[in-house]
Automatic annotation (TrEMBL):
Gene: nadA
Protein known as: Quinolinate synthase
Cofactor annotation comment: Binds 1 [4Fe-4S] cluster per subunit.
GO CC, one annotated term: cytoplasm
Binding site for iminosuccinate: H22, S39, Y110, V111, N112, S127, H197, P198, E199, T214
Residues given in the record as [4Fe-4S] cluster binding sites: C84, C171, C259
Localization of this protein: Cytoplasm
Family: Belongs to the quinolinate synthase family. Type 2 subfamily.
Pathway: Cofactor biosynthesis; NAD(+) biosynthesis; quinolinate from iminoaspartate: step 1/1
Species assigned in the record: Syntrophus gentianae
């Protein structure tokens, strides 16, 4: 163990690399990272460093976003098969088909999409700013296509009173969280506050005290007076919450909420990635340029 950690640090210096870990990464991967956070925050943070190489410990679309923000840096993902099933539920071609059916609609896409899909959108949003984007940037839009997450779309529709032309994507990990899980944990821990991610089913978010993005959750748990918290998102985030809040107790709402793609990234793969300079993520320049245009419009509305 000691050995692999030392090797990673040594190679990181040699390559002038920065290591980013998403909030859902394995504890030991989070612990070697320079920054831990959500996909947009990490991509923005990495762009502001003078590193030559970014090692993105997360899923493919996140590494693409990092490359879109840092075209001059080499972006590597330690496992090229770490994809996001939700992002893969819509392709550029499918979105072009939907746009052809609704030529007057504005197209809002969640960050959990490929660069190719972002390039087809008018506007991108995160789970932290989706409500604001609809209320402010799209307030005059007559029709809005919202892809790919049907549950995030349902949550934003409830909050804003707007309806969307939906796409039927979802996150298989968050879909595993059921209302009975929330009821069970609430009964076990009656004083705990319940957090849920908006990728959860509406039947789950309706039972939560707070619905928030991963960064919103991390901020909330630091600020709240509550000392017991039931966490309704991917279990990996609990490592960071425990580290940042040693006096508080965290319970996963469901042990089933594990993203197998996030867990594909291991310390060994981080080491090999640095050693062999693999696996590069580099969307075509024209796609990256158009994807950036849809991301850029949300940068003033980050949370
Ligand atoms: O963009 C991210 O990092 C995701 C997918 C989740 C979140 O709520 O931060
Ligand atoms: Fe995709 Fe869900 Fe995994 Fe996030 S937790 S990367 S949305 S499958």
């Amino acid at each position: 163990m000691e050995n692999i950690l030392e090797k990673i640090q040594e190679l990181k210096r040699e390559r002038q690399a920065v290591i980013l870990a998403h909030n859902y990464q394995r504890p030991e991967v989070q612990d070697i990272a320079d920054y831990v956070g959500d996909s947009l925050g990490l991509s923005i943070q990495a762009a502001s460093t003078d590193a030559k190489v970014i090692i993105f410990c997360g899923v493919h679309f996140m590494a693409e976003t990092a490359k879109i923000f840092s075209p001059e840096k080499t972006v590597l993902i330690p496992d090229p098969d770490a994809g996001c099933p939700m992002a893969d539920m819509i392709t550029g071609e499918q979105l072009r088909g939907l746009k052809a059916q609704h030529p007057d609609a504005q197209v809002l896409c969640y960050v959990n999409t490929s660069a190719e899909v972002k390039a087809e959108c008018d506007l991108c949003c995160t789970s932290a700013n989706a409500v604001t984007m609809v209320q402010e940037v799209l307030k005059d839009a007559k029709e809005i296509i919202f892809a790919p997450d049907q549950y995030l779309a349902a949550y934003v529709a409830e909050k804003t009173g707007r309806t969307f032309i939906p796409w039927h994507g979802f996150c298989p990990t968050h879909a595993k969280i059921l209302p009975e899980d929330v009821e069970r944990e609430k009964a076990r821990h009656p004083n705990a506050v319940v957090l849920a991610h908006p990728e959860c089913r509406p039947a789950v978010t309706h039972l939560a005290d707070i619905v928030a993005s991963t960064e919103g959750m991390c901020r909330y748990v630091q600020e709240t007076a509550a000392t017991e918290i039931i966490v309704g998102t991917e279990v990996g985030i609990i490592h960071r919450m425990r580290k940042e809040n040693p006096g508080k107790v965290f319970y996963p709402v469901s042990e089933q909420a594990v993203c197998p793609n996030m867990k594909r990234i291991t310390l060994e793969k981080v080491l090999w990635s640095l050693q062999d300079m693999v696996h590069e993520v580099n969307p075509p320049l024209e796609i990256a340029r158009r994807a950036y245009a849809s991301i850029e419009k949300m940068l003033n509305y980050r949370s």
